[in-house]
Amino acid sequence: MNKVESLAEPQEKTILIVEDDDTVLTFFEYYLTKQGFNVITAKDGQQALEKIAQSIPDLIILDALLPKKSGYEVVKTLQQSHKKIPIIVVSGQLKDLSMQMMFKMEPNVKDFLTKPVQPDLLLSKIHSLLGTKSKEAKIAEQRFEEYKKKFEE
User: Domain spanning 3-152 has what CATH number?
Assistant: First the structure.
């Protein structure tokens, strides 16, 4: 079995995006759906917790500053019942290092990214955390294997 076959497929994974900015939410949703992930969305912390109660995602992308329940309140609530769900926190508060440190000390927070988030960086972190591989990487590996076979024959 080669490396490509041992990894999970993106369509087997569900990502919850929690973001109150419609533009950012739409971009993340579009980008991750194009990569093959199942995506669910929430626009505030309370709605996020309700969605998680309905269906546990494989990963959460969480805005730090949200209405109703803050991103930090969501993280703390998840520590009680869903502490194994990896969380990537995003925030536009670039200079607030105390906020970053507060989030980074939580065990299920795997990374803290500042907006604007570089899509390729976000995607590489997601693939790493979920044990998946991008479509482009799979195609490149398949072509390499085909090329390699031609020379081995």
Answer: 3.40.50.2300
